[in-house]
Amino acid sequence: MDMLNCPPVSRRSWPARLLSVAALSVALLSGAALALPSEGDRAPNARVEDADGRVLQMKALRGKPILIVYEDKDSATQNQAFKDALAKLAKGDRYRRTIALAAIADVSSYDFWPVKGFVKDAIREESRKVGATIYCDWDGSFRAAYRLRRGISNIILVGKNGQVLFAAEGALKPEAQRKVIGLLRKEVEG
Any bridge partners for residue 167, and if so which? Predict the structure, then answer.
């Protein structure tokens, strides 16, 4: 075989090729680490606080079904139809008393003075409008614990036993909305 017909030889040394493979492996693994919790996973005990600094530990809600709606200001409308359906469901006292709603705002981009004060005021006002406490994830630790993607609406339902029953990101399709509401009904009504 003459030199003109030989396959090209990589100019990179074997250590450089090894580093490339290692970098690709780390990228793939870290991407997998960002996957939402799976059904059946134990829900992490993450911590958030309301606009007045009152802390909520997720473990304090165990024993109730927990509906987590995690959004930022840009993704808050992605699941408006689902939130409207939930509002209808919550008109009954039984559901309001039985389900723990964890409405959580990703405000990690605003954790600096003086902006943080303005954001707290806006969260208080929005909480009054919707009639529910909106909690704040100031440092992104809740997002990291639940492996949520930034900038997208995330819906997670945790059963009374602390296991994830449903997890999705983005706008829920009607069949997914019906599934979550059905799972909530099952948790409340047995």
Answer: 156
